[in-house]
Automatic annotation (TrEMBL):
Keywords: Aminotransferase, Pyridoxal phosphate, Transferase
Name of the protein this chain belongs to: Diaminobutyrate--2-oxoglutarate transaminase
Tree of life domain: Bacteria
Organism: Streptomyces violascens
EC number: 2.6.1.76
CDD domains: OAT_like
Pfam families cross-referenced by the UniProt entry: Aminotran_3
Record has Oxidoreductase as a keyword: no
Family to which the UniProt record says this protein belongs: Belongs to the class-III pyridoxal-phosphate-dependent aminotransferase family.
Gene for this chain: pvdH
PROSITE patterns named among the record's database cross-references: AA_TRANSFER_CLASS_3
InterPro entries (alphabetical): Aminotrans_3 (IPR005814), Aminotrans_3_PPA_site (IPR049704), Dat (IPR004637), PyrdxlP-dep_Trfase (IPR015424), PyrdxlP-dep_Trfase_major (IPR015421), PyrdxlP-dep_Trfase_small (IPR015422)
Pathway, per record: Amine and polyamine biosynthesis; ectoine biosynthesis; L-ectoine from L-aspartate 4-semialdehyde: step 1/3
Length: 436
């Protein structure tokens, strides 16, 4: 057996069947730089999954490596619980420099652990402690993580404490309306639920939303809807939690995705790119919510010095090089080109996204019910085939959406014009091959 095959075979025997990425991406990465991953079999891939949006600067960016090396060479302790250190101080200062002004000036940070889901748990617990209430408002199609609280707030899950509200979407709008009017209908529905003395619900502890749903199939919330959610929650003293785990650090064309609407949430949940490819998750929140006792939210791994150094270097690089602006320009261009591609491929039902968070929803045009006005049904098998055809052409993409029918592109923000062309060429070829 080659190294490549041997590793794949041993892992598939020993690893739980619950593993996900390795099933659809049978590669054995041994080296990586920027957009490119090299496998043990010598094959090279353009990585448009980027750790589900983690790698804002791509793999092994020199400024990230340099920051990590500096900590390693300094003799600083690598494990230090959550004690104050110069590395942590530098990270916090850099992070606060990027935050919406109200949070930067009057906000607090809680280091939560390695994973996004840790920070979601902290956010849910924080607003429950601060309000003394328990119920939570969350949205259809949401993804917040795999631990109990985060999972309960994610779409599809059933939990007595969570009330699920419709997330606005143009394509497959639950009201069959779409656009601003569909979003306004969704907002009214939320208001009625909170205010109806008979059919309504008790005052909840908070509302948690993603400014752009990622795992849910790349669905950007309209800015007007975001502002309505802010108004609805603020006027009823319900803390608003923005989960920016995937949308943060320039990904959507602004440093934080809430900037598009100007909404300042009470709590921001941050992970993925803030650790510069290493594990790090925090919440930042309005000072007034800080009602919990010392020790109320602990955890051993909240002081990852390497992640803080890599994260600070990443945040600074994105800010100094205006990579959010770059993501906006390049993302808009790529969306336009994908919309052009959709004209030739009836199996592309929708192309959408914000910045370099892009989704292509594949459908089965032959099963379209023209009399209903609904879009054709999703085509998960086709999406899986496109993913495999991409892989054959050396392109890594991820799937998302309720039916796994959405091909997602999350390239690094450092993507060059030439690389963007290569990515779209390979995707177009893969689509043509899979749709044949
Ligand atoms: N929230 C959002 C919006 C996410 O996209 C994810 C991960 N895809 C999470 C939370 C959970 O993060 P993690 O996988 O690091 O626990």
């Amino acid at each position: 057996l080659s190294t490549h095959e041997g590793i794949l075979r041993r892992q598939s025997l020993r690893e739980s069947a619950a593993r996900t990425y390795a099933r659809s991406l049978p590669i054995v990465p041994v080296r990586a730089r920027g957009l490119t991953i090299e496998g043990a079999d010598g094959r090279r891939y353009l990585d448009c999954l980027s750790g589900a949006g983690t790698l804002a600067l791509g793999h092994n960016h020199p400024v990230v490596l340099e920051a990590i090396r500096k900590v390693l060479d300094s003799g600083a302790p690598l494990h230090i619980l959550d004690l104050a250190t110069p590395v942590k101080d530098a990270f916090t200062t850099e992070l606060f420099a990027t935050l919406p002004r109200q949070l930067a000036e009057h906000g607090r940070i809680q280091f939560c652990g390695p994973a996004g889901t840790d920070a979601v748990e902290a956010a849910l617990k924080l607003v429950r402690t601060a309000t003394g209430r328990t119920g939570m408002l969350a949205f259809t199609g949401a993804y917040h993580g795999m631990t109990a609280g985060a999972l309960a707030a994610s779409g599809g899950a059933r939990d007595a404490g969570v009330t699920r509200l419709p997330y606005p979407q143009n394509y497959r709008c639950p009201y069959g309306i779409g656009g601003e009017r569909g979003a306004e209908t969704a907002a009214r529905w939320t208001e009625n639920l909170l205010d109806d003395p008979k059919g309504g619900i008790p005052a909840p502890a908070g509302m948690i939303l993603e400014p752009v749903q990622g795992e849910g199939g790349v669905i950007p919330a309209p800015d007007a809807w975001m502002r309505r959610m802010r108004e609805i929650t603020a006027s009823r003293s319900i803390p608003l939690i923005a989960d920016e785990v995937q949308t943060g650090v320039g990904r959507t064309g602004t440093f934080w995705a809430v900037e598009h609407s100007g909404v300042v949430p009470d709590v921001m949940v941050l992970s993925k790119a803030i650790g510069g490819s290493l594990p790090l998750a925090v919440i930042v929140y309005r000072d007034g919510l800080d009602a919990w006792e010392p020790g109320a939210h602990a955890g051993t791994f909240r002081g990852n010095q390497l992640a803080m150094a890599a994260g600070a270097a990443t945040l600074a690089y994105v800010r100094e090089n205006r990579l959010a602006d770059r993501a906006a320009v390049l993302g808009a261009r790529m969306l336009g080109q994908l919309q052009g591609l959709a004209a030739d491929h009836p199996c592309i039902g929708d192309v959408r996204g914000r910045g370099l968070m892009i989704g292509v929803e594949l459908v089965d045009p032959e099963r379209e019910d023209l009399s209903s006005g609904n879009p054709p049904p999703p085509a998960p098998a086709l999406a899986a085939a496109v993913q495999q055809e991409c892989l054959r052409r050396g392109l890594i993409v991820e799937l998302g959406g309720r039916h796994s029918g959405v091909v997602r592109l999350l390239p690094p923000l450092t993507l060059t014009d030439e690389q963007a062309v290569a990515v779209l060429d390979r995707l177009a070829d893969a689509l043509a091959a899979a749709a044949r």
